[in-house]
Amino acid sequence: MSQKMKISRACLFAAALSFSAGIAGKAMASDPVVGDSIAPPVNVNIGLLYNVFSDAGTFGALHGSNYSKDTKIEADITVARYIRTFEIGGFEAGAQIYDEYYSFLGQQTLGERQLGLGGLAPYARFGAQPLGAGRATLSANSGFAQPNLGAFIFPVKNPAAGQYLVIAPWISPPISSYNKNDILNPSPNAWVYEMEVGYRQTILGTQTTPNLSLELWGEVYGYGSNSHSALDAPYVTANSIPAIDAGVFGVKNPVQTPSSTPATFREQPTEEIHVYAPYIFNPATLAFVAPGFYQSFGGKQTYKLSNGAVEDSGNRTNETQLRLNVGSFVSPTTQIELLGEYDIAAHGQQLARNVELRIATFF
Predict the structure, then answer these.
(1) What integer pLDDT is reported at residue 120 of this predicted model?
(2) Which CATH class is domain 15-362?
């Protein structure tokens, strides 16, 4: 039973470099958090409210080293989710729905939403002089993401042994506050299909004493195409060229003006794994602390133009992340969790630092 958030991708072509960057991919994030693999009671309603703050100050190029100078992307995401459990054929199952609202923070005109560029391409007519470092200014479209509809079933449910297996398919229709002319969007405006499997096993201790478990998740995403997309190029400036006068070799800023070319967007399947090691130190309230690890693969993103040409955006879903999750029931019907996420590597996307608060109530 996961909650998955993605910022829509963007293709950034900087001068003649054909530099491309993903404002996307994963995780603004909450995917499955610790305990989502534990079967809740049957025939209950669960309401959840999430708030996520995400900050990115470094961009991970598809090939080569990371670049942090002049990169600043921040967002605040609010999520509402509803779950209903029931029983089918002797197995616990359920249905769920959630949606997110994205608020991209800062003002584009003040340089608060931008991506640092490590090396802009040379201009051949000026003696192939490199333009050096620069920045891409990012337009943003805050609003609702696509609704996500899901179901789940627990083929294995053994509370006494702390053993669970959950299978959860999801589907997300292209209904959202999407604007093809913006670099940052709350959704890809395409059908999204997901299959998710979670497994939990207590390995030390019992359910009535402090105990240590292992929680594993695997996810596979498939995507439809977005025929109403656009290949968006941002406003790009070079740091070494004065903003007003001609500067080096008569080259003026911007070195690239914004543009938007109609195109069909496609994304290849994405795979993700999550590993948590939750330690419950107070079984009475299920209070726990859990270090975690996340890795994603795949997700190559391309644009097909009207003339048939296919442009590789350079964006991928290739991210390595460390996590720390803590949580507890604060009353018999209310649970609070706090999750921190820190990217240690990302290729073709920004490196994210996320803090999430989740409140769940059972009724």
Answers:
(1) 77
(2) mainly beta
